[in-house]
Amino acid sequence: MADPAGVDDRIADAGARSDAHVADSAGVDDRARVAEGPA
């Protein structure tokens, strides 16, 4: 653990990317449902 702060930063960055991916995936699913829905 030469650089615990650096490790924490990488973990936080990975979490942020995961959150963004999950949110984007949900948005894609929502757009697909809207496109399929009323038509």
> Radius of gyration, rounded?
17 Å
Strand content: under 5%
Helix/strand-derived category reads mainly alpha
> What portion of residues is helical?
over 70%
Q: Distance between termini?
A: 57 Å
Mean pLDDT: 66
Biased composition (Basic and acidic residues): 7-39
Region (Disordered): 1-39
Explain what this protein looks like in three dimensions:
The protein has about 40 residues and is an all-alpha fold. It is built from 1 helix and no strands. It is rod-shaped, with a radius of gyration of 17 Å.
Features:
1 helix; mainly alpha; 39 residues
SSE blueprint:
Layout: H1 4-36
Summarize the structure.
By secondary structure, this protein is mainly α. The protein has one helix at 4-36.
